[in-house]
Amino acid sequence: MHVPTGMRRVVAVVCATALASSPVLLAPPTAGAAGAATTSARAATPHLTALLTKKTIVVRGADDLKAGRAHLEVRGRGIVEFATFKAGYDVADFTADVNKFGAKNDVKALKRALKNTTIIGGLSGGGTGTIVFPKPGAYTPFSIGDRGVVTGKTLVVDGPKRSSKTPKTDGSIIGKNGPSWGGASQLPAKGRFEFKNKADQPHFVALQQVAPGTTTDQVLEALQSEEGDGPPPPWILPAGMETGTLSPGRSMTVDYDLPAGQYVVMCFFPDPKMDGMPHALMGMLRMINLT
Length: 291
Description:
The chain is an alpha+beta fold. The chain has helices at about 5-15, 35-45, 90-105, 105-115, 215-225, and strands at about 45-50, 55-60, 70-75, 80-85, 115-125, 130-135, 135-145, 150, 155, 170-175, 180-185, 185, 190-195, 205-210, 235-240, 250-255, 260-265, 270, 275-280, 285-290. The two termini are about 25 Å apart.
């Protein structure tokens, strides 16, 4: 994954990947599934495995799936997310709208997609966690990369909704209006966090390790820099990870294993009210420490 630093490159990357845009400061992911943290989740909930290829997404373990929480494991290069659509709008409409936004920064297409789509979360390849299917219905796995949208076979989720508790977590990361972040300022270097979206727009979590003492002002200045072809700032360190997107009011849990240190929390989801500007460029940045 590239490490661009300029605003032009930021916008290019975000538009190219649209609703699941890759964080522009994110180095190649080093996060892995926290094995000890996931054992209880597997025992308590159904287990889904999503394999992402260049052309499709194959989900296993979805037979007789009921509404409620499910454990998710993603394999492949990229992020797999799950979405459900309003009546009269389907996966073909979603794919067309996301690709239009990605190719032409068509904000009308972005707004149409967001109006008709609920995204319940997802994970990057190698990641594990839990997502919640809120009610019976049809849910489609998708991934957005440089070549546009890749989808898999739609899952049919039956009812009634299972009773399922949120797995034990070490803290939370909360997307808020502003846009801004709330939640824990310190987490263990290996564990599980709950990602909650309490905002009125979709958000995702991008964690990027930075040198101790780095400020959000420095990160914002680098993101807004016009010098996109230069070397990355010296305070960017190799470790990082990202989650899938959550629509407003949704939550998920994420297992992680990262080096201890300082991290900046970012979201690069395109803001439909600001002509598709990534939330991070609007100041959605926060420093936390993994110990």
